[in-house]
Design brief:
Elements: E1 2-4, E2 10-12, E3 21-24, H1 30-41, H2 50-57, E4 60-64, E5 71-75, E6 81-85, E7 111-117, E8 129-134, E9 143-144, H3 147-164, E10 167-174, E11 177-182
Parallel strand pairs: 7-10
Antiparallel strand pairs: 1-2, 3-4, 4-5, 5-6, 7-8, 8-9, 10-11
Amino acid sequence: MHFSCQCGNVIHDTSDNLSYKGYIIADQDIDYLIETIEKLEKPHTQYIGVYDEISKLLRRTVYQCPDCGRVYIENLAHDYKLVGFNPDSEKQQEDDNKKLLLSTFGEKWKGYLSADWNDDIPDWQEHHGIIMPEVNVKFKNLEFDDFESFKRRFFEVLEYMKHMNIVSSAVLHVNGKRTYVWPESERR
């Protein structure tokens, strides 16, 4: 899914772990959430769909435009139509207020690193190689047409992410084949 913010920025919801996407739990549902989690603490003999119960509560998705700070919330009563809300003041348009949906770990959230190289450029890409760090830190120079530069940059980004302790896993694909996985325990 993708949609355009009123400011013109296109908001994409095409992957996991987005820094501008979250979920809202209604205050009226908090007791139900606590009861569902408590089911995990009690001995039981049959499967309890705790995840299914919790995801019922997380159906209302919220997005925040990283450019202007405008918030969009799904309206469950109207087929998940998005309803937009503007920031109240210029102060709310400051950068920190455009990151309301970041993990509670902020920039220290442990994300993922993936990279794809294709000798034949796919229709959806403009370059042979692309490096995609899914973390709350911005990186530059992530698209390549030279394989050696691409590979070198992948390992530079990975080492930086490891040093900062903000990576949980990494994978490098070359022509659709997984050629590198970190950590080793993830290799299958």
